[in-house]
Amino acid sequence: MAMGSVYNVIELIGSSPTSWEQATANAIGEAARMYHDLRVAEVVEMDVLIENGAVLAYRSKVRLSYKQTVTEG
Fold first, then answer.
1. Choosing a second label site near 51 at 20 to 30 A (CA), which of 8, 24, 39, 70?
2. What is residue 69's predicted lDDT score, i.e. its pLDDT?
């Protein structure tokens, strides 16, 4: 049997009170707890949560891929 590769893609939204970079890192960190062999992270959208004219949280929508090994039959 030949081995092939499949890459699954998920989207997560990370948040942080300090920066988009930290929001992205939070999303990746959480994904790493649930998925193995993360490969690529792409930030597809960034926004901020605002209350009373002040930024409460930075949010990053992150598209992540992870590798899954499959057996062809």
1. 24
2. 63
